[in-house]
User: What shape does this take?
Amino acid sequence: MLEFEALTGQKTPSRILNTFLRKGAIPHALLFLGMEGVGKQAAAIKFAMACNCLEPNTETVSSRSNSSSDKDSALTNIKNKTPCGVCLSCRKILSKSHPDIIEIKPSGSYIKIAQIRDLCKILALKPYEAKIRVVIISDVQTMNAAAGNSILKVLEEPPERTILILTATEQSDIIPTIASRCQFIRFSPVPQQKLAEMLVETKGISADSAYVFASMSNGSYTKALDIGSAAVLNKRDWIINETESLSLKETGNCLAFAEKLSKDKDVFFEFLDIVKIWYRDIIVFEYHPENTIFFDLLDKMQNASNRHTTPDLLSRFDEIESARQNIRANANLRLTAETLLLRFAKNNDE
Ligand SMILES: [Zn+2]
Assistant: This one.
């Protein structure tokens, strides 16, 4: 019952997917929505396994009487709730060698029409061996109009014993006619506590470090896995050192730092996340040092708290947030970075 949740830390999607399996009523098209790294792909694979697991099921499931056409029978007779992980079908899916579990990802920046044409040729045939063929199309927002139209045709006339699982970050990124034919399942950012536990399990790091890394990863499991390395801590330290030493007297250094941060949006957003935690920590440090997130930097925090006043730090929070909003509204990245750093430098000099 908790398989999906154990995998991704996602309560609501787990509950919905389990309900489909338990009731034996699976929609032909699902749309998994949520930011990158919250377990959409992992849940899709696990769901494909659950649909096709060969392990005998002891549970009795009443079949629905109102949808018993031949074409739909496979979708309504699923009895397994959780995949065993060891049967032939489960193993093939895990090793990506199952002929009926098809994963389509952007080739370069886009999902190309050729990829969808190839898919349509496969879908015109019956599944080779699966009870239910599962097609997982990731990042559907990267499909161009031609590819989108081909997928739309598939959704309008669902192939035999086949479900489509589409994934995307935002519903608004998707062609509305595609979205309207799918059942939505929303994935939330993974809770920090859950991320920290996953890091302890998968990386074998201490609970304290895992908590620091989880705090830095914004609810993304993929990001949390990437983090947890010395390189990430070095980057954090570089960002904090550079930011703390900003000074109007050395405008050239300010602008050079801004240039490095404005290489792309992700780099800049990462900078904003880290600096925000840092400023929050400086405020918290004074009263509750035990509640700081970067608790491995207490000495540095002590020094910084002598340099910054609380009103100054609070105004920096506002500036960080307005920089973030400006970038989301497509403001010039370099200019936004420069403006923000020069403001920080001004406050440092006062
Ligand atoms: Zn199995």
In short: The beta strands are 29-33, 101-104, 133-137, 162-168, 183-186. The two ends are 58 Å apart (CA to CA). The first strand starts at residue 29 and ends at 33.
